[in-house]
Description:
The chain is mainly beta. It has one domain (2-709): TonB-dependent receptor, beta-barrel domain (Maltoporin, Chain A), CATH 2.40.170.
Amino acid sequence: MKYTVRYLTQCLGLIGLSASLSIHAQEQSEAKEGAVERIEVVGQESDQAIRLSGFNVDLLLTEKYQNSVFDLNQILNFSPGIHVRSNGGVGSSSELSINGLSGNQIRYFFDGIPMENFGGALSLNNFSGNLVEKMQVYKGVVPIELAADALGGAINIITPSLDENLLDLSYSYGSFNSQNLSVFSQIAFQNNWFVRSSVSLNHSDNDYEMHNINKVENGNVVGVQTVRRFHDAYTSGSINLKAGIQGTELADELSVGVILAANKNEQQHPEKSTNKVFAGVYSKNDSKLFSAIYKKDWQQFGLKGYLLTGKITESFYDTLNRIYAWDGSYTTPNNATDGEFGTQSIFHLTDDILRYNLSADYHLNQQDTLTLSYAHNAIERQGYDEINANNTSFSTPNRLDKSVLGFAYNTQILNDSIRFGVFAKHYQMGGEIIAEQQVEFETVEQTTLINFDKSGFGATLSYQLSDDWLVKTSFEEAVRLPEPVEILGTGKYVMPSPELNPETSRNFNLGSTYRYSVENLFTRTEVNLFLRDTENLIRYVPEQIIRGRYLNDRKVQTNGIELAWYGRLHDYYSLNLNATYENATDQSYVDIDGFPHNHHGDRIPNRPYQYANARFSLDWMAFDIAGLTTSWSINYVGQFFYQWESSGSKSTKFQVPTQATHDLDIEYAFKNDAYRVSFSTRNIFDKAVYDNFNIEKPGRAFYIKFRYLN
Length: 710
């Protein structure tokens, strides 16, 4: 905490922003009719600027999904250019990609506050759609207001406005003993005070069947078998409290908040293989966060900021001296100190974090605006092992801090039909790593000071060709600074890498949107071309069977196209279609050890490159059945290799097969829409579905959800 206190002295008076934005009334009406209506947005500018923005941004409204059991990751998966991959059922690790860039290259925000290192209990798959009003999805270029070192884009989760009285209560139950309880409540008092609270509880046994698992006898594979997972339960809970004033002469918003979250996540097997089975390995997370937010817009000047501080503890448990098989039987290893994954261990890793941001807008006139933003992110990491005295990782605290300074100029010309913006960002990173490292074939504790900085820049342009036709383009020289897990390690399975350099990427987008309406028909067609030229790609490299580290070694070029079409007829029928094709190839000439690279020009392995979604919704008011809505969704992922495509014969190479799954949602709203019930079926035809490293995911599942909204 000393590190946090030291940095708190730098930011007295800085309190932050909870970003909200207005939507053009006509576009908002269109949005509510579609399954996933998408609106181009940018920051907090006027409604017209939102529609004409040069940023490639989608606004996903969650209203049509709040009666279903979709979490935020699943809702995002319906957006063009986005693909969400998971390693299993509820609570499993997941990775979201936007136009070919993924993982830590994408930044996440909650009402404008960065969610980096929030802990496992506050990931997107822990958030129900009930707690969120909409999500901004930036593809490629990210505005400086978010002050992020994003390489491939950003997602900003936006909650309802503060001047509403709300009560949203829901409970769902389904296959694999999956349960979710969420409560969102808000009171807006007449004296401009408000109080908001949200509570979320999740649980799933994740005991689904898996097929074609190797059957081992006496150390030899003798065939395959169908097994049921028996140690993969996930439980999480969170409480988010917020109170303050809004809409006064002092502030548009002045508030303080507290977030408490925890989870327990059992681990059935390593993420990349099912050949090793666990029955006692699990992790826990405990997050305690405090935030302060401020926002005020005057006629010519706007000021906003946030402050976030707190403590996040991740604990890893591996205490059973056993070797398990898929049938639940086990043997005892010869070494009494062995656990299931490594040496027996109860390791606690604690991060003290401090983040703050201050940004200002100055309107020179009606056409020209200047924006300045500064964000700082500091972390102090320490840890200890309760039972393994040899694990001294982070016994001396390590620290890392980074800052982003941004400047932007935006203008409008030709009666606002052309909007142009330029921006620049400067990134700095410093820190101190104290860890055991190999020096001249000896293991010694070494202190490494981190200090580097880098700059980036970009531009956006949009042209309104007509009332219905908009063309936009954007470019950025983007920079991503290494994450704490990449450069500091975890003290268990990820070793420190103080030599890591930032990733850079030249991102280019060119897109067009065309709207057509006649009588009771409305359609919108979108096309977007993208190019990503990425250098110093950071990737994980195994080194000691169960351990590894992150290193720079790859140059990757990604290009592709995304297509989207939305149609609505008579306000009762709607159809969303989207498809994405991306080609990500390795352009490195040498490998990580400096030898000639044998896979130059190959497509990056273990990564889908063609995927699509379709969703058809029917409001049964068309047949005089009030309150009943049905939706049919299809998710398609083309086959891909999860090893290098040029290695060996393609006919015998491991690949993830083509997959197409179907989902059905039936919703009924009772009188006045206050009471709602929904029935959902996932993977109706019970197709075998796979993802990372060909690990099987849950098959057919059924859910029922009850919701009260007032």
